[in-house]
């Protein structure tokens, strides 16, 4: 698909130690599971009837937290959005 649009991603392969890969996987699984359980609790437990609003709030919070981590130097600078990349997605 990327070749059809004239955009090819540039991957920089970095050999990570096995423990770093496993830790990343475990953190992703924990975050994903926690988010699923919290959404279920918010929608069912509190009788919240606006799942789209909850999703919007989570997306905005994610952007704010990632940008804060970037400013604090916890993660490297993010790649700026480019129209050709947006069109691919």
Description of the structure:
The protein has 89 residues and is mainly alpha-helical. The protein has a domain at 41-89. The chain has helices spanning 18-45, 51-71, 83-88.
Percent range of helical residues: 55-70%
Largest sheet: none
Radius of gyration: 17 Å
Tally of strands:
0
Helical stretch tally? 3
Shape: extended
The residue-averaged pLDDT reads: 80
Class computed from helices, strands and strand pairing: mainly alpha
Query: Roughly what fraction of the amino acids lie in strands?
Result: under 5%
| Alpha carbon gap, first and last residue | 10 Å
Give start-end ranges of low-pLDDT stretches: none
What's the order of the H and E elements? HHH
